[in-house]
Design goal:
The chain is an alpha+beta fold and about 200 residues long. About 50% of the residues lie in helices and about 15% in strands.
């Protein structure tokens, strides 16, 4: 679907002044077509969930580094941020910065909130997010050149080793279904059929 709009009539009846009752996708229609679509709807673009998600992603990473979290604490905090944002998005609700701050660092009261203010990071007090963009907190994935790969962030350094100098990934303990396919291929499919 290239262009679509959704109008939430309940939100319009309850909070029309907020202006958050229309949401839309633009797909790959191009900027001119998308602008025409917005003009046709009679609305202006408000908060961009994708941009907000990227800001949250970079702000959380900055905070985890500045607060000197241990690696396992960083992994746990990233997972909690992703889970919180995903839950809010599924419920059709915006992320609340104060709540997000409590999720990231329960030990330091409003630590993330204060960090954002001190560093003058442009993170709104309440904003929509795009979960797909935030998956980068908990997953690595990529595709190209006939290869597609995806793994949980917590596996990096354990089951998955990455050498920056040689640009090499070493995976220890391949998934059983992949192992079976590789063994069948290397030993020849016919030998498995005879067994």
């Amino acid at each position: 679907m290239q262009l679509a709009a959704r109008i939430d009539l309940t939100e319009y009846a309850v909070n029309a002044e907020k202006g958050n009752y229309i949401s839309f996708i633009r797909g790959r229609a191009g900027r001119k077509v998308a602008d025409f679509f917005l003009d046709f709807l009679g609305c202006e673009e408000g908060a961009d969930a994708r941009v907000n998600s990227q800001k949250v992603l970079s702000s959380v990473e900055e905070y985890l580094g500045a607060a000197e979290f241990a690696n396992d604490e960083k992994t746990a905090a990233r997972r909690q941020v992703f889970d919180y944002c995903e839950e809010r998005a599924k419920a059709g609700q915006e992320v609340v910065l104060a709540e997000l701050s409590a999720v990231i660092d329960a030990w330091t009261e409003n630590g993330f909130l204060h960090y954002c203010a001190e560093q003058q990071l442009e993170v709104a007090e309440q904003f929509p997010v795009e979960v797909k963009e935030l998956k980068k907190l908990v997953k690595f994935n990529g595709a190209g050149g006939g290869l597609s790969l995806s793994f949980d962030e917590k596996l990096l350094g354990e089951r998955v080793q990455y050498d920056v100098k040689t640009d090499t990934l070493i995976i220890k303990g391949t998934p059983p279904n992949l192992r079976d396919q590789l063994q069948r291929f290397t030993q020849g499919y016919s030998s498995f059929d005879q067994a």
